[in-house]
Write a structure and sequence with these properties.
Shape of chain B: globular
Largest interface: A-B, 29 and 24 residues
Largest sheet of chain A: 6 strands, mixed
Strand order of the largest sheet of chain A: 6-7-8-3-9-10
Distance between the termini of chain B: 38 Å
Radius of gyration of chain A: 19 Å
Largest sheet of chain B: none
Structural class of chain B: mainly alpha
Number of strands of chain A: 10
CATH architecture of one domain in chain A: 3-Layer(aba) Sandwich
Oligomer: heterodimer
CATH superfamily of the largest domain in chain B: MetI-like
Strand content of chain B: under 5%
CATH superfamily of one domain in chain A: P-loop containing nucleotide triphosphate hydrolases
CATH class of the largest domain in chain B: Mainly Alpha
Shape of chain A: globular
Radius of gyration of chain B: 23 Å
Order of helices and strands of chain B: HHHHHHHHHHHH
Number of domains of chain B: 2
Number of helices of chain B: 12
CATH architecture of the largest domain in chain B: Orthogonal Bundle
Helix content of chain A: 40-55%
CATH topology of one domain in chain A: Rossmann fold
Structural class of chain A: alpha/beta
Bound molecules: adenosine-5'-diphosphate, magnesium ion
Chain lengths: 270, 279
């Protein structure tokens, strides 16, 4: 990611509006079925670069499923049948000739609960780097330090980098998972209610981190917390029962909702 | 109604307490019997020397090192051989076959059936193969037969451990760009390690204690085996042969060997228990 371009985008309105028209993710007529139910119904949308796009909607409306389609984690669930198209940087991710591991490495994933890998704090971050073919100890160590600092975890763990990551607190684990995802230099960050299991402090760190990160990354954040959506969102996609009801810039969605369902949702959420 | 439920509760509580007590009593009695009969014959000499001269007639002259060493060689090698097969199979079930749930269920059922087949059938099977190949009873044949016997046990025990790995950890691994093989050997293996070790020990306990599978395949001898082609003695068969002697002093040696075998299995079980992950 050329950072000069990023800086230009922030200063120059016209460049930014051009960048906003360049979608990173294009979803077209995406349908997901499981045994008897239709989980995602003809979902089509685009997700712009270097913005925080929030997927908003009540529990069970298909937000997690949509997120998992993006890096094809749906492959893990035998019950799910997916059809439609998803393009990331213009590349069809369902194309069976494409290397799925390379596509997944474009995206960092943060789940509802942190799942540190069964290894040391250091190796949790080194793992993804090694998969990318980085062997140099020096580079790995530098990256471990850089990304742990990035998520404000370095001071807390610098003396015990070689101890098991699974012994950290939940909040620390989630920040480690974010650092682990960032270390492989993804373009997109997928976050599924990342602060729902966290204490207020860790969840603030994560939120602040997202705001800082959006100049370099495209962030897709699932949440059902209205206030969090308002704090973070540039764009909002509002879902209900597997359908996209409304989507657009955050101010429009929050100030001027069109559909009755969204009005109701915003009203109850207050 | 409430009174009936109260009595029902009391009745089943009492019943399970009595049954539990009975089982414990039977166990205590069993251990007491082998100790009472075998302890007097147990000495450093009987565990450190192979039999010689009049051993089988009078219970004097050497010991049963042949059976202890034979059992260890056999069980350890069988466990190693079985491990090399079981780990990949268990990982395969949980990494690849989860996408085909019906086939997975069928595989698990099939392995459970294999687990339940009596070991004498494995022994007979091993014997048939031996005859077909024209080999004689040997350590190697015993190892292969016991490895076949314990593999379903090892695979299914490993499988049960791998099944408990949270889907979120798998998602995290794939999301970082791991292939299935990397997820299997770098993530699943590490996450499940204590449980996998327990599975190996379980299989070892079963392998070292089994008599029927080695009856036709490993043979019996007074010597400690020196190669895979040599026949070998084993503790379970040693116990079997000594017990059929009319002389009480010879029979007591079988009880001494029972103590040794029970101790080995006790140590293995306790280690397995200690390794089991808490939670
Ligand atoms: N693997 C699956 N198999 C079957 N049904 C599923 C699966 N995953 C999700 N669902 C169903 O899809 C619907 C949407 O779930 P989800 O995407 O988790 O919603 P959200 O994240 O918005 O709460 C739910 O009704 C859920 O039961
Ligand atoms: Mg969800």
């Amino acid at each position: 990611m050329p950072s000069t371009l990023v800086n230009m985008q922030q200063k120059n309105i016209t460049v930014e509006s051009i960048a906003a028209t360049v979608p990173v993710v294009e979803i077209d007529k995406l349908n997901v079925y499981s045994k008897g139910s239709h989980i995602l119904k003809n979902v089509s949308t685009v997700i712009p670069k270097n913005k925080i796009t929030v997927l908003l909607g009540p529990s069970g409306c298909g937000k997690t499923t949509l997120l998992k389609c993006l890096n094809r984690l749906t492959d893990l669930y035998p019950d799910l049948k997916v059809n439609g198209s998803i393009r990331i940087d213009g590349e069809d991710i369902f194309d069976s000739r494409k290397d799925i591991t390379a596509i997944r490495q474009k995206m960092g994933l943060l789940l509802q609960r942190p799942y540190p890998l069964p290894m040391s704090i250091y190796d949790n971050i080194a793992y993804g780097l090694k998969l990318k073919g980085i062997r140099s100890k020096k580079i790995i160590s530098e990256k471990v330090e850089k990304h742990l600092k990035e998520v404000a975890l370095w001071e807390e763990v610098k003396d015990r980098l070689k101890t098991s990551a699974q012994r950290l607190s939940i909040g620390q684990q989630q920040r480690l998972c974010l650092a682990r995802g960032l270390a492989v230099e993804p373009e997109i960050i997928l976050a599924d209610e990342p602060s729902s299991a966290l204490d207020p402090i860790s969840s603030r760190v994560i939120e602040e981190e997202f705001i800082r990160l959006k100049s370099d990354y495209t962030i897709i954040l699932v949440t059902h917390i209205l206030r969090q959506a308002k704090r973070l969102a540039d764009n909002v996609i509002f879902m209900y029962y597997g359908e996209i009801i409304e989507s657009g810039p955050a101010e429009e969605i929050f100030e001027n909702p069109q559909s009755e369902i969204l009005k109701e949702y915003l009203h109850v959420g207050h | 109604m409430t009174l009936r439920r109260k009595w029902e509760e009391k009745f089943f509580h009492g019943l399970s307490a009595i049954v539990t007590l009975l089982i414990v009593l039977v166990l205590v009695h069993l251990v007491w019997t082998i100790i009472a009969k075998g302890a007097s014959s147990l000495s450093w000499k009987v565990v450190s020397e192979p039999p010689n001269g009049s051993f089988y007639f009078t219970g004097e002259g050497g010991g049963f090192l042949n059976a202890i060493a034979g059992s260890f060689y056999l069980a350890v090698s069988a466990v190693i051989l079985s491990f090399l097969v079981s780990l990949p199979v268990a990982l395969f079930l949980n990494i690849y076959l989860i996408k085909v749930p019906r086939l997975l269920t069928a595989c698990r059922f099939f392995l459970d059936v294999l687990w339940g087949i009596p070991s004498i059938v494995y022994g007979a099977f091993g014997f048939l193969i031996l005859m077909y190949l024209g080999y004689r009873n040997s350590l190697g044949a015993g190892i292969i037969t016991v490895a076949t016997l314990i593999s379903p046990i090892m695979i299914r025990s490993m499988d049960e451990v791998l099944k408990t790995i949270p889907i979120g950890l798998q998602e995290a691994s794939y999301a970082l760009g791991s292939t299935k093989t990397e997820t299997a050997f770098k993530i699943f293996f590490k996450q499940a390690f204590p449980g996998l070790a327990t599975a190996v020990l379980l299989a070892f306990g079963r392998g070292i204690g089994d008599a029927a599978s080695v009856l036709f395949t490993a043979g019996f001898t007074d010597l400690v085996p020196h190669s895979l082609g040599d026949p070998t003695a084993t503790l379970p068969l040693f116990i079997f042969y000594q017990l059929s002697s009319p002389s009480e002093s010879v029979q007591n040696l079988a009880y001494a060997a029972s103590i040794v075998l029970t101790l080995i299995i006790l140590v293995v079980s306790i280690t397995a228990r200690l390794l089991k992950p808490k939670r």
